[in-house]
């Protein structure tokens, strides 16, 4: 993939805080028009990576290129950003807050105000256009900030943990907004530690743990790092069943679970039927992104408290 | 555990946290040493004020335009009467000068003298002298009349009635007196100090708002922190100008209501460069002082992450301002001295000291030089302040300062290809 096909690339990014390498040599390449996920447990270095990619902080080592610029700052007006720690001036009206965020990215105030009104109507927040931020619920304020980060129609949108703190209804709204932005042609980079969103939205993703990139590829690639699993419930369980099953088969409360054999399931099923065990239930489970994530970063890291 | 013991334990837990949170910070050291610094700056300020009062007194005289014989008698009487006064209450020194043909014009010229302040001039025969006196010279005019009276009594057996029949004429100076210029210089320093203290000092806490509501991350992502820094500085400066305009308008309107007799009393107070130039210079120096100190305060204020730290930082910052005030006051009192030169050159006292200079001295070219010098320091300070600000806000040093254009962008593109999937 050539440089023109990439909205963003970075190579060997390193950031140290107090001697600790919080980000330790991360490479990243985000194709134009893609929804790209940066996944990782809490404290993995996702936010620091995003901040370096945007030029908010400078890497101690490494290079990056954003929308064709060596300095991310030069592309600032073509970028939208929703930080992990949401922040709006509480005394501003919602419409003004969106226009202000647009103005910071070079959009005219008047245009920003008009767009803010239209966007808020479309997002079901029309009634709150003239309400002060301090009067809005957390979810509403978060959506207002998201609208503020796209009001100038950026080519590249960065969302840091966009779903955190949102109820399921607002999470759905946010997913719809992200997809609408993608359909508009924007490239979207977002970080999360909630796999369900990444699984639904991402074209490609990178998994970070301990400041290092542990995986880069598509969701399917990530899932492919784990074998498919079989859940088998015998009709008649006689002695000798365990000997027929693969070595890793483990008894569960409702049958047996094991990794799909390399030869496929059919030869095994034939043997089980022939031996009279029969089949009361059979399911072949494709591993999810969550399983792949846990395997890639390690269970301990994946379950770190927030 | 009893209720009382539990309350004591809980109280001490809170106290311990507060104590540790206050003491184990770098700003506490500044806070701790504040009285020492304050004493140092206070000494400088006190020295300045004392020198100012002293030098002002030394530059005032009274003059008798009299023939040598009358002059000798006046000097003798002055010597005798002066002994009656305590030093600080004594009239200004007497100078006797030979009268010229147009003695009235000579007297008037003396009153308007720009080299020295003549508070009163006596001329004409001692029996019927004329005394001209300026805004602050009523008492010294009486003293001159008394001198003439006593001089006449030396050779006569006059009774209790006054021998000298004097004509006293109060006159207003065409230009500000030296003492008036000194006073104007002090008011200038004080005005600049007060306004900067009041207005630029606010910059210390401005980052607290963005920090508390997390807006800083949004700002930092969208625009360079240097722009955030400058934007805040300029925004606050706008507030300062509004404040200044409002109170200048109020002062002007109050001034126009002052009765003429009272206004005459202030006639001798004024800047040496003239009022229009002085107003422009005052605004220029206020701008410089605001930008210089505001940039420092904003940069330092960004290091504070809690209201407690802001409070701790406020004291040393105020002390620094008081120090600049003390130094500039000393400069105002002693124009041309090494203290004045130092204060005029030292970037953070320069706007105050040069403001005082505008009141003390009519030269204008030095101001152009000083403003250029201060602009340079504004640029340096804003640059350093912005980096401090960035470090304080984002714990990141920001891009390395480059004084030459970046080379080798081709290598960057090559690196881009290398990581492309």
TrEMBL record, chain A:
Keyword vocabulary terms for this entry: ATP-binding, Nodulation, Nucleotide-binding, Transport
GO molecular function list: ATP binding; ATP hydrolysis activity
Pfam family, one: ABC_tran
Domain ABC transporter: 8-235
Family: Belongs to the ABC transporter superfamily.
The protein's name: ATP-binding cassette domain-containing protein
Automatic annotation (TrEMBL), chain B:
Transmembrane segments: 184-204, 233-258, 278-300, 312-333, 371-389
UniProt-recorded name of the protein: ABC transporter permease
Record's keyword annotation contains Magnesium: no
Highest taxon listed in the record's lineage: Bacteria
Taxonomic source organism: Sphingomonas baiyangensis
Annotated membrane topology: Multi-pass membrane protein
GO cellular component assignments: membrane
Domain ABC-2 type transporter transmembrane per the UniProt entry, residue ranges: 28-384
């Amino acid at each position: 993939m050539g440089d023109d096909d990439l909205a963003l690339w970075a190579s060997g990014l390193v950031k140290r805080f107090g001697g600790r390498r919080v980000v330790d040599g991360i490479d990243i390449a985000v194709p134009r028009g893609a929804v790209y996920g940066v996944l990782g447990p809490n404290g993995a270095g996702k936010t620091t990576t995003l901040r370096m990619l945007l030029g908010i902080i400078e890497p101690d080592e490494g290079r990056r290129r954003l929308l064709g610029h060596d300095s991310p700052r030069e592309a600032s007006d073509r970028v939208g950003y929703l930080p992990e720690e949401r922040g709006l001036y509480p005394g501003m009206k919602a419409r003004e807050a969106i226009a202000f965020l647009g103005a910071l990215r070079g959009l005219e105030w008047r245009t920003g105000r008009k767009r803010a009104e239209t966007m808020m109507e479309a997002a079901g927040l029309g009634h709150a256009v003239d309400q002060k931020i301090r009067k809005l619920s957390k979810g509403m304020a978060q959506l207002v900030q998201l609208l503020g980060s796209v009001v100038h129609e950026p080519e590249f949108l960065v969302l840091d943990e966009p779903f955190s703190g949102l109820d399921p209804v607002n999470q759905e709204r946010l997913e719809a907004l992200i997809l609408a932005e993608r359909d508009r042609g924007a490239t979207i980079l977002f970080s999360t530690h909630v796999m369900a969103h990444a699984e639904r939205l991402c074209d490609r993703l990178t998994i970070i743990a301990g400041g290092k990139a542990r995986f880069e590829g598509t969701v399917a690639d990530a899932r492919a790092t784990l074998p498919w699993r079989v859940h088998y419930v015998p009709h008649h369980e006689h002695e000798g069943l365990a000997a027929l099953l693969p070595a890793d088969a483990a008894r569960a409360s409702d049958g047996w679970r094991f990794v799909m054999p390399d030869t496929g399931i059919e030869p095994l099923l034939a043997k089980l039927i022939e031996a009279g065990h029969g089949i009361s239930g059979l399911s072949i489970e494709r591993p999810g992104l969550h399983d792949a994530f846990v395997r890639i970063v390690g269970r301990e890291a994946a379950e770190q408290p927030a | 555990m009893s209720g009382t013991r539990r309350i004591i334990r809980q109280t001490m837990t809170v106290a311990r946290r507060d104590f540790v949170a206050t003491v184990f910070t770098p700003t506490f050291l500044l806070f701790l040493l504040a009285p020492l610094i304050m004493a140092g700056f206070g000494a400088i300020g006190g020295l300045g004020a004392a020198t100012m009062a002293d030098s002002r007194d030394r530059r005032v005289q009274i003059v008798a335009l009299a023939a040598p014989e009358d002059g000798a008698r006046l000097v003798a009487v002055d010597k005798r009467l002066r002994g009656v006064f305590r030093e600080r209450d004594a009239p200004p020194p007497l100078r006797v000068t030979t009268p010229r043909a147009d003695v009235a014009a000579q007297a008037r010229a003396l009153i308007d003298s720009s080299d020295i302040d003549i508070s009163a001039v006596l001329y004409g025969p001692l029996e019927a002298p004329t005394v001209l006196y300026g805004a602050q010279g009523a008492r010294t005019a009486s003293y001159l009349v008394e001198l003439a009276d006593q001089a006449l009594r030396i050779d006569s057996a006059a009774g209790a009635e006054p021998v000298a029949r004097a004509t006293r004429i109060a006159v207003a100076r065409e230009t500000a007196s030296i003492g008036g210029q000194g006073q104007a210089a002090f008011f200038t320093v004080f005005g600049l100090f007060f306004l900067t203290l009041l207005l630029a000092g606010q910059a210390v806490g401005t980052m607290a708002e963005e920090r508390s509501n997390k807006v800083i991350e949004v700002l930092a992502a969208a625009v360079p922190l240097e722009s955030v820094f400058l934007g805040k500085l300029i925004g606050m400066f706008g507030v300062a100008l509004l404040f200044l305009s409002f109170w200048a308008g109020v002062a002007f309107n109050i001034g126009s209501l002052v009765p003429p007799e009272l206004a005459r009393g202030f006639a001798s107070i004024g800047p040496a460069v003239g009022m229009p130039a002085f107003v422009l210079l005052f605004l220029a120096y206020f701008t410089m002082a605001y930008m210089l100190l505001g940039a420092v305060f904003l940069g330092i204020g960004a290091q504070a992450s809690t209201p407690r730290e802001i409070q701790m930082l406020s004291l040393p910052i105020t002390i620094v301002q008081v120090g600049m005030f003390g130094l500039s006051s000393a400069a105002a009192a002693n124009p041309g001295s090494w203290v004045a030169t130092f204060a005029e050159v030292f970037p953070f006292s320069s706007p105050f000291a040069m403001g005082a200079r505008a009141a003390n001295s009519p030269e204008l070219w030095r101001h152009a030089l000083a403003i250029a010098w201060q602009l340079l320091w504004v640029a340096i300070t804003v640059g350093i302040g912005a980096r401090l600000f960035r470090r304080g806000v984002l714990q990141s040093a920001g891009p390395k300062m480059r004084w030459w254009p970046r080379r080798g962008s081709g290598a960057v593109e090559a690196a881009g290809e290398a990581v492309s999937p």
